[in-house]
Amino acid sequence: MRKQRITYTSPLDALVAVSKRLSLYENQQQMDSEIFIDRYRKGLIPDETLFVEWSNDYQHYLALHQQLTGLLRAAA
């Protein structure tokens, strides 16, 4: 599998893109990301490529959400 690096113009653009990918995973697997990550961390879901990517995207989503929340608080 080739790694692909995507550059976004802002954290908000990145958050939107990651959110769209999470939505695709959720629809495909019929499971919310929060439930998935809980089960994945407990070892109930295997370390297959799809699930590793979903986990990484979810961690990226959380980091972006935290970054944007901090920026909004600083601006207020």
Description:
This protein has 76 residues and is mostly helical. The chain has helices spanning 11-29, 33-41, 49-75. It has three helices and no strands. α1 (11-29) runs antiparallel to α3 (49-75) and α2 crosses α3 (49-75). The longest helix is centred in the C-terminal third of the chain and has 27 residues, at 49-75. The mean pLDDT is 93.
Tell me the total number of β-strands: 0
- Class inferred from helices and paired strands: mainly alpha
Shape: globular
Percent of residues in helices comes to over 70%
Please count the helical segments.
3
Q: Give the SSE string.
A: HHH
- Sequence stretches where pLDDT stays below 50 over 5 or more residues: none
* Average pLDDT reading: 93
User: How many structural domains are formed by the residues?
Assistant: 1
Residues in β-strands, percent: under 5%
- Report the end-to-end length measured between terminal Cα atoms: 43 Å
Rg over alpha carbons:
14 Å
- Largest beta-sheet details: none
InterPro entries: TumA
Keywords:
globular; 72% helix; 76 residues; mainly alpha; TumA
